[in-house]
Amino acid sequence: MIAALFVDARGCYAGLPDVDVWDEARDARLYPGPHPVVAHPPCTRWCRLAGLVEARWGHKRGDDGGCFASALASVRRWGGGVGASGLQRRVGSASAVGASYGRRLGAR
Fold it and tell me: For the segment 51-68, what is each residue's pLDDT rounded down to a tens digit?
């Protein structure tokens, strides 16, 4: 079993055997474990386009409602990985994913 955090309930993880989907309704920031995670926190506040997002909509860089910190803490505690298009800017490596999860979790 793995937990897919910060994902769309209708996305590519939905319906897969042995995948516990944590979508917006379940609030992945509250994931209690114990399974390894694949976490896709929203990246619009810290990706390469964060400056544009801030200039255009006023959303402060790094203000993602605690989503990234929670994802990283879950990976460190339970194992797994974080994947996001802005990951290179944040931790020095990159993988691709799109996310809008945080917009409705206080990262406006």
Answer: 888 888 888 887 888 998
pTM of full prediction above 0.85: no
Distance of CA 9 to the CA centre of its chain: 13
Are β-strands 80-82 and 2-5 bridged in parallel, bridged antiparallel, or unpaired? unpaired
Distances (CA, A) of 75 to 35, 42, 53: 10, 15, 27
pLDDT value at residue 84: 61
Q: Where are the domains of the chain?
A: 2-104
Q: Give Cα 100 to chain centroid, integer Å.
A: 9
Distances (CA, A) of 100 to 34, 76, 94: 25, 23, 18
